[in-house]
């Protein structure tokens, strides 16, 4: 039961995304018009210290008017290595430069509408480089005990699905 994208026409674009209208053929041979949002990849990173605390940002998202804990994240620049982008974003948003980053997971947060891929990484070491360049991205940055992550997610304190998935994976990897 595969849908086939026969063609796409650009409807709108800016430096962050493109909106295309696709001509999609369904398995029964019929066609439908389907909007597709094409996005640049997103890279995210965090660090877990020796005390099994994870570095998170507390921030407001104006689109959903919600507050929540997140990993440092941002768009991968053209030609930029994804892991390098994750390290850059972490340092810019937290003031901590991660050590060697390990892939945690890649998720497609809304694959019925967008082609967005979020690549999440982690490290077990980081070095403080100074106040974050992009401090406006969050209200605060804190080391949160990894053991409390599942309860935080259950309480809705990590509203972004990609962040919740990454934190649950880290919890599993580090604490079993």
UniProtKB/TrEMBL annotation:
**Some GO term, biological process aspect, for this entry: which one?**
ribose phosphate metabolic process
Using the record's annotation, list all stretches that form the Nudix hydrolase domain.
38-171
Gene Ontology CC entries for this record: cytosol
Cofactor entry:
Mg(2+)
What is the name attached to this protein's record?
NUDIX hydrolase
Q: What GO molecular functions are on record for this protein?
A: hydrolase activity
Keyword annotations for this protein, in alphabetical order, are:
Hydrolase
| Hydrolase among keywords | yes
What InterPro entries does the database record attribute to this sequence? NUDIX_hydrolase-like_dom_sf, NUDIX_hydrolase_CS, NUDIX_hydrolase_dom
**Which is a Pfam family this sequence falls into?**
NUDIX
Keyword flag Transmembrane? no
């Amino acid at each position: 039961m595969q849908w086939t994208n026969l063609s796409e026409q650009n409807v709108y674009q800016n430096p962050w995304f493109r909106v295309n209208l696709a001509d999609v053929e369904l398995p029964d041979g019929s066609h439908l018009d389907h909007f597709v949002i094409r996005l640049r990849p997103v890279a995210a990173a965090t660090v877990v210290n020796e005390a099994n605390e994870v570095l998170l940002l507390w921030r407001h998202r104006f689109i959903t008017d919600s507050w929540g804990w997140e990993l440092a994240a941002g768009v991968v620049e053209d030609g930029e290595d994804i892991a390098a982008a994750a390290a850059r974003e972490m340092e810019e948003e937290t003031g901590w430069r991660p050590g060697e980053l390990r892939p945690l997971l890649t998720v497609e947060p809304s694959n019925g509408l967008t082609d967005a891929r979020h690549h999440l990484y982690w490290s077990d070491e980081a070095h403080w480089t100074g106040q974050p360049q992009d401090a406006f991205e969050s209200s605060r940055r804190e080391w949160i005990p990894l053991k409390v992550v599942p309860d935080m997610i259950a309480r809705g304190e990590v509203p972004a699905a990609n962040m919740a998935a990454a934190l649950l994976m880290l919890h599993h990897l580090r604490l079993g």
